[in-house]
Design goal:
- This protein has 289 residues and is mainly α.
- The chain is built from 14 helices and no strands.
- The protein has one domain.
């Protein structure tokens, strides 16, 4: 794998945990998600305009735009359902296992082939990522519905990655993101409005968090945009979908270190050990190219 591509993916991974840092303890996840997708749309428009891109260029890949948009809206719905009832430490590793879906779907439906060394690297990354967040003694099968929601979250995220990677062969990342998020933003708002609890007003449910933590919401959206934009740039530079999404799992040990240093979270030594397993997996993936 080219050093430039590795650097872009690692920078994307380093930025990803900041979304979780900014939203930690937030009591309005729906308003946060809506804020993130609104910021995505605005930043993509500004970015594409600054680069002199034709915002309508994504029309040439409109089926991929639609697939990406629908899968992102679905992803957020499943994600919030997962963590409304399940522990973060138990189900987060599953929701972040999209490289597994990418490899399986790519092999079965897209005709992709992978070397044994690459598959070994992906396996090490997934094992390391899982045990980094998994809480010993947690009963994974005690909540089968939540487990299903976590698997669906992982799967639709994999669909998004595959569609977006394919689109990068034709269109620039910022223009593609702008087109997709023109659909995603109203889609997320509509889904959250329809599924809101009867005890909460529509305005509070969708926009309540902005009044209390506007800078946090803006920072969450901005870091999320930059992280995903860089991943699309890596695809445009020629990164393989499975390899890039696996290397991006480096964000998990970064989040563990942040959690230990900033929030005093426990099990640091054990988690750093699994981080080493993940790092070996990333090295194997890089060596396989």
């Amino acid at each position: 794998m080219d050093l430039q591509i590795i650097a872009v993916i690692l920078l994307s991974a380093a930025l990803h945990p900041f979304r979780e840092f900014w939203i930690k303890g937030n009591s309005g996840p729906e308003s946060l998600v809506l804020a993130v997708v609104i910021v995505f749309t605005v930043l993509a428009a500004i970015h594409a305009t600054a680069l002199g891109l034709d915002l309508s260029s994504a029309v040439s890949v409109w089926p991929l735009v639609v697939v990406s948009a629908v899968s992102v809206v679905t992803f957020y719905w499943f994600l919030l359902r997962t963590f409304a009832h399940g522990d973060l430490s138990v189900y987060y590793p599953i929701t972040r296992s999209s490289p597994l879906f990418v490899v399986i779907a790519g092999s079965l439906f897209l005709g992709h082939s992978y070397s044994v060394l690459l598959l070994l690297g992906v396996a090490l990354v997934l094992v390391g990522a899982f045990f980094l967040q998994y809480e010993p003694g947690a009963r994974l099968l005690s909540q089968p519905t939540t487990l299903l929601m976590a698997v669906m979250t992982m799967s639709v995220q994999g669909v998004t990655i595959l569609a977006d990677a394919e689109a990068m062969n034709t269109v620039e990342p910022a223009a593609f993101l702008f087109a997709a998020y023109l659909i995603i933003t109203p889609g997320v708002a509509l889904v959250f409005a329809v599924t809101r609890p009867s005890s909460r007003s529509l305005g509070s449910h969708l926009f309540g968090g902005w009044r209390h933590q506007p800078l946090r919401f803006l920072a969450a959206g901005t870091s999320c945009y930059l992280s995903y934009y860089l991943l699309l740039v890596a695809f445009q530079l020629g990164a393989g979908v499975a390899a890039a999404s696996a290397v991006r799992q480096v964000s998990i040990p970064i989040s563990v270190i942040m959690g230990g240093m900033l929030f005093g979270e426990a099990r640091m030594m054990g988690r750093l050990g699994w981080s080493f397993v993940l790092a070996i997996g990333v090295a194997v993936i890089i060596l396989s190219h």
